[in-house]
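Ticket #4471: structure output looks truncated?

Reporter: J.K.
Steps to reproduce: submitted the chain below (415 residues) through the standard prediction queue, then opened the result file.
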Amino acid sequence: MTVSSEGDTGQLSVPRLMAVVFLPFATGYFFSYLYRTVNAVIGPGLAVEVGLTAGQLGMLSSAYFITFAAAQIPIGVFLDSHGPRRVETVLLVIAALGALLFAIGDTLWGLVLGRALIGLGVAACLMGSFKAMSEWFPMDRLPLMNGLVVAFGGLGAMVATAPTEALVAEIGWRYGFVALSIATALAALAIWFIVPERVRAGSSEPLSVRIGGLKGIFNSRAFWRIAPLAAFSQGSFLAIQTLWAGPWLRDVAGLDSRTVSFVLLAGAAGFVAGNLAAGLAAERLARRGIPPIIVAGVGMAAFMVVQVLVLLEWTQFPVLLWFAFGAMGTTGVLAFSVLARTFSAGLAGRANTAQNLMIFAMAFALQWGMGEVINIWPVTADGGYAAIGYQAAFGMALVLQAIAFVWLILGRERR
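Returned output as attached by the reporter:
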């Protein structure tokens, strides 16, 4: 099915839109987040099997983020010109290939290549979903629909914890990645054959015009008001949740691998609940004249408070702590709905991917950097990492968020 005008949803009812637009794209993001988070569970065993240091493990895991970030600008251009259906289908096939290479890799650089291809392949899953939601659903529904998409990704994060730990115990992580490769290829086929397509004028725009739109975004004061805090907040959340949370729970909280997987499951459940709550709150408060940027700012401030508890090693109730970490850590996603309201529909893909570029570049830098900071202190007698190393690494990320938060407040006062 092809729809000719970008502002018209044709004859599709809301249930039909949920079936043929929301579910296929949300499934793609499910796999994106599963890939993103799975190293927090398999990382310790993988490091032992391949013989990796903390810095090498951080670099391996963060290879996902650097290719993901590098792809954001071209993805934004092609999302606006060729649409999310075509872009995401092609890239998910690349992700399936990367998962297969990761499954058979037996050296550090072989695993890095597979992980990097996975990052490239899922680079459009969230932004493609946001672009599709903005094309097919009313603007006032965007915070809710975007929240539902990210919550669906949270289900992937949940599957990447205790269920993955149980599966890996049975068949090993290599066969698990073979299964992921097949499932990802099927998701690509579903998007190609199920999602309707639009006829869009942007496909004939000269490349110089498309790049000119990007310049307007990066020259926008509104963009630079919110982008730094969203980047530091989401980058810190991703760096910790997708890798360093597992080792922290093992080395600082003193939990065994099975308990760690269940605590991470609680964090993923908080991620799902936080996205649903933030999306609903932003939608309802917007009707009362309170813009989504206020909800996002309050949520990211609350996330900093949770990180202070992590720095203080509040380990009496790790399930509660990590549930709060997941719930508050996701509120920065509301920045995307803020950008969708700030820029025109024709620039929505580029505006969102510009923000996503900053988030994932920061996630790459922080995840690798945290490993190098942790490496400064020698490993403990039982082979774990020193608690003070985690404090220094996580504290560095928290300071950056605090500076960006002050910048957001100062920008609001100037405005």
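Triage note (M.O.): checked the attachment and the full token line is present. The chain is about 80% helix and 0% strand.
Status: closed, working as intended.
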